[in-house]
Amino acid sequence: MVRTATRDTEEFCAFVASRSAALFRVAYLVIGDHQLAQDLVQEALAKTYVAWPRLRDVANAEAYTRRVIATTAISWRRRRGFHERPAARLPEAGQPDAAADTVLHEALWACLQGLPPRQRTAIVLRHYVDLTEAETAETMGCSVGTVKSSVSTGLKRLRESIGSDLEPLPAHDGVVRP
Amino acid sequence: MNADLRQMLTARAEAVETPRLDPAAVLAHGERLVGQRRRRMAYVAACAVALVVAAALVVVPGRGDRVAPAGPSDPTRTTEPGARPLGYVQGRVLHLGGREVDTGLDVLSLDLTDDGAALTTLDGGIWFSDGTGVEQIGRVPGPRLIEDGVSYNSGGGPGEWVVSDSEGSLLAWVEHADGVPELVVYDTSRRGVLLREPVPTVRPRDSAVVVALAGREVFVVRERRGMRSETMVRFSVDGGPAVEVDRETFAAAIRAVPRALLLGPSVRNDVLGTSDGRRRHGVEFDELIEVRDQRLQEVLDPETGAPLELEMPADDPVFEVHFLQWLDDDQFTLWADGDLVACQISVGECRRVLDADWSFFEGDDMPLLPGNGGFGSDWALGRALRATGGEG
Q1: A-chain residues within 8 Å CB-CB of B359?
Q2: So what's the pLDDT on residue A89?
Q3: What single-letter DSSP state applies at residue B76?
Q4: Cβ of B379 under 8 Å from any chain A Cβ?
Q5: Partner-chain residue, chosen from B148, B209, B318, that has the shortest CB–CB distance to A78
Q6: Listed range (A16-25, A71-80, B265-274, B308-317) with the worst mean pLDDT
């Protein structure tokens, strides 16, 4: 028993060492603040440690931790006084071409931080982590239809905010409603 | 330019300095959580007690602090005349006022009458529980499972399969016998069907969905198969032929319901929505309530159109607020960032009655609260799909 617990601890520490940086980046994109992201990933890893005995391999552990990051980030909004931030101060347009991408990226980042947490989380999981819609739904603990609508609504708000021609997603959301 | 978004996210992630986490600190925190996990059952039980106490506090004006905490086995706390018990589902257990029932069901949605709770399941089953047991009272065509999700049939999502009024004992839904939609009105106080009436349709296989129960009237939207055209008909639960009605008639009937509120989005969109958040006249109604400076915005008296002055608890700012259920003519409950908040119109105040750190629950433990697409409904659907092998 003791040997099993020790082995679990060793494996968990190895998992932390190998994956915490990648998980931190996801947390940072989801919550948009360095210190909060650090707290978030630490909290998520601690919860993963609790679940560790029933996680079969590292891939499961990473997916589990991402799920905790996603759900915890959403719930932290109130508890940490984490307000939605208006994306009013966008970088000025009309920069030289060389800086155009940077300007656009800054604008996108600012607008992303203004999105509600569920939309922001869904966009990060889909467009950064490259999860499928089904995987994103599993990570966020919601239906595929909710993921599709969250991403679609979030991108629409980004387009409206920066006046960009971000490509619209396919209209089909897999859920037929009257 | 979705590529720009992807590039921006990648660039941001690569540019941020990653901290060096202390595994020992993570382990120590994890060990603390292990201890908390062992206490979870006690916490859940405390939630049940809190709900019972909350109900006792909010449905009995003036009783206030003199009320002693009630155990979950005391149902009398929530059965005051004209009052409706608070209800939620956790796992397969229905918590209704002070009672707990192991339904054995993967419940998709929860709706309430004065007598108990109506539940829906993935196979289209409609069930009722008064807090002592559960019985099936109807069935609608369940959703079709498709590769990447669920395709709901004409009745919409589970929360739209069955409709209750904001007071009283009636439930209504549309069954489809041989492809012909048939309105069913069920009286939960008598435990029997009060009305079963075919919905007149234009063409075979046209569909129908109940959108509102208002007093003794039931409003049904008929949908032309493959078309967006919709018409509304009104039934009386006392019998008689269905009558086609226009939107103004429907609006007037909804405004006349004693327990009704007009919420902001419905006002802005010029679409009548009432406080239970259901779709009205084929238009998706958002039950989200806007909060500014801790005051509910655009919650209007349906008769006068005047804004109601309702102040949220000052102790902690809230961001997302949804309507949950009426408790009596003067009080209703809200979901506010996971907490349960009770508002009293006559006093103009709302107070937090259950401070629930929902983030502590994992998905399978997430409570399902009342209402159309209510809090926890996504997790409930995921549970049900996994149980049938339809997902995950």
Answers
A1: 71-72, 74-76, 79
A2: 40
A3: G
A4: yes
A5: B318
A6: B265-274
Task: Go through B16-50 and write b for each residue having 16 or more CB atoms within 10 A of its CB, e for each that does not.
Answer: bebbebebeebbebbeebeeeeeeeeeebeebbbb
Mutate to test the interface with A, among B14, B16, B26 (most CBs of A within 10 A): B26
Helix ranges (DSSP H) in A52-175 = 58-79, 100-113, 117-127, 133-140, 144-162
What interface predicted TM-score (ipTM) does this complex get?
A: 0.80
Distance separating alpha carbons of residues B169 and B158, to the nearest angstrom: 20
Give B207 to chain A, closest Cα distance, Å. 9
Asked if A133 and B148 count as a contact pair (C-beta separation under 8 A), the reply is: yes
Q: pTM here?
A: 0.57
Chain A contacts of B146, Cβ < 8 Å? 174
Q: A141 and B12 in contact by Cβ < 8 A?
A: no
Length reported for chain B:
392
Residue among B30, B338, B359 minimizing CB distance to A49: B30
- Listed by number, the residues of chain B in 178-207 with a beta carbon closer than 8 Å to a beta carbon of chain A are 207
CA-nearest residue to B6 within chain A is A127
- Among B210, B379, B194, B342, which residue's Cα sits nearest to residue B278? B210
Query: Residue A141 is nearest to which of B149, B230, B363, comparing CB atoms?
Result: B363
Beta bridge partner(s), residue B212: B219
Q: Enumerate residues 6+ apart whose C-beta is below 8 A from A144.
A: A133, A134, A137, A174, A175, B148, B149, B150
- Start-to-end CA distance of chain B, whole Å, equals 32
Q: For the segment B43-78, what is each residue's pLDDT rounded down to a tens digit? A: 343 444 444 333 333 332 222 222 222 333 332 333
CB contact under 8 A, A75 and B392: no
B182-211 pLDDT per residue, tens: 999 999 999 999 999 998 876 766 778 887
Q: Provide the token pair at A46.
A: 């601690």
Average confidence (pLDDT) over A7-33: 89
Show the low-confidence residues of chain B (pLDDT under 50): 38-81, 147-148, 265-287, 358-360, 390-392
The residue of chain A nearest to residue B357, with distances taken between CA atoms, is A75
B282–A167 C-beta distance less than 8 A: no
Contact in structure between A53 and A65 (CB atoms under 8 Å):
no
